[in-house]
Design a protein that fits this description.
Elements (H helix, E strand, L loop, with lengths): L1 H24 L4 H11 L1 H22 L4 E16 L6 E20 L3 H68 L4 H36 L28 H11 L1 H22 L4 E13 L3 E3 L5 E10 L6 E9 L5 E3 L2 H8 L1 E9 L7 H67 L5 H37 L5
Antiparallel strand pairs: 1-2, 2-3, 3-8, 4-7, 5-6
Helix pairs in contact: 2-4, 3-4, 4-5, 4-7, 4-10, 6-9, 6-10, 7-9, 9-10
Length: about 475
Amino acid sequence: MRLSRFTGWFLFLFLFANISQAVAQDTWSLQRCVDYALQHNITIKQQDIQKRMSELTLKQSKLSRIPSLSAGLQGAFNEGRNPSPQTNAYIQQSFYSLGGNLSTNVNIFNWFSVQNLVKANTMDYKSNIFLMEKARNDMAFNVATAFLQILLNIEQVKVNEVQVKLTNSNLSNTRKLVIAGSVPESNQADLEAQLASDSVNLVTAQNGVTTSILQMKAYLNLDFEIPFEPEVPENIFSLPLARLDEMAPEMVYSAATTTYPLLKSDELKIHSAEYNYKSVKAQQYPSLSLTAGLGSTFANNIKSIDLSKAQIGIDTVGFVANTSPLVPVLNQSVKIPNNAMYMTPFHDQINNNFQQYVQLNLRIPIFNGWQAKANSKKAQLNLENAQLTRDADVQKLRQDIYTAHANAVAAMQKFNAASKGVDAAQKAYDFATKRFNLGLMNTIDYITTQSKLFRAQIDKVSAQYDYIFKMKLLEFYRDQKISL
C-alpha cells in the first residue's frame, strides 16, 4: 500500500513537472499573437457587433417590402346596461363576448422610398465589412508594433546586463588592486557608483519589458496573470526590407488607395447617404397602399328560437262592421315559452357576423410641422458630410504616408550613424581598457569611455528597431499586411 501511494505521488510530480515545463516553454510568435488578438480583442468584437447590427438592419428593411399581416383576438365581460341583441334597447344584463380579426397592409407605390432605403442599408452593411477589415488590419499592425517593442526592450535588457557584468568585473579587479596598493581607493568608489547607475538602468530596462508585455496582453485580451514569453525571430536584424527608392510616397499612396479599407468604406458610406436621401425625399410625396381584413364576433347573450316549441294560436280581435251575421276578425298569435330560447351556437354566430373589407388608402402629406422637409435637408447634409469625411481620410492617408516615408529616411540615417558610433566607441573603449589596465588612465575617464560605448550600443539597437518599424509601416500602408 505504501509503495502504491509512493508511486502515485511520483507519477503526479512527474506529470506536474512536465506540464510546468511545457507551460514554461510555451512561446508566443508574432503570428500567434496576431491570430489570438483577432479572435479575442475587445475592439474587434465591438466592430463585429456593429457589422452584425447593420446586417440585421438590412434584413429588416428587405422584409419591410413584404405585405404586413397581423391577427387579433379580443375577449370582454360586460356588466350593467347594454343594448339588447333582440330589441337594441338598453337593459340591465351581463354577458361576455369574443372577437377575432386578421388584417394585412400592402404598399403599392411610395416613390421607391423603401427600395432606396434597402439600397442604403446594403451600402452600410458593405461599409461595415470594410471597417471590420480595417479594424483587423490595424490590430495586426498594433500587435506587430508591440511585439517589436518587446524585442527592443529585451535587447536593451541584454545590453544592460552585459554592462552590469562588465562593471562588476572591473570593480572586482579594482578591489584587488586597491588591496595590493596599486590604485587609490577612490577608483573603487567610482566603479561602485557606476555599478549602482548601471543597475538602475537595468531595472528600468526590465520594467520596460514588463510594461510592453502588459500592452501586448491588453491587445490580446489576455489575462495579466498568464505568462507571456515572446518567440524572438532568429533573423530579426536580417529581415527582408523593401528599398527606400522602391517606397516613394506617391507609389505607396497610389497602392494604398486601392487597398486601404477605410477609403472603400467611405465610398460606400457616400452611396448609402445618396440612397438614404432619395428615400427620405420620397416621403414628401403622396403614397398609395392597400388594406384588407376579415373578422367576426361571438357573445353569449345572442339567442335563437326553437320554432318546434312555439305555441301558435288564433284569437278574435273584433268583427267586421255592418255585416250580418257578424264576421269575426282573427289574429294569429305566437307564444314563445322560455324553454324555446337558447344561445345561438358559436359557429352560427361566427358565420352570421363574419365580415370582410378591402380599402385603398391614399396618403397626402400636407403639413406635419416641416418634419419631412427637415428630414430631407438632414439627409442631404449627411451626404455632404460623408463626402467631406472621405476627402479628410484621403488627405490624412496621404499625409501619414509622406510622414512615414520621411521618418523611414531619418531612421535609416540614424541607424547608419549609430552603427558608426558603435564602431568608434568600441575602438575607444578597447584602447581605454589597455591604458586603464596599465595604470595610464584614471577611473573617471575609463568609466566615461565605457558609458559612451554602452550608450552607443543602446542607440544602435534602438535605431535598428526603429528603422525596421518605419519600413514595416510603409509596407503596411502599401499592402495592408504586416509580417516579421
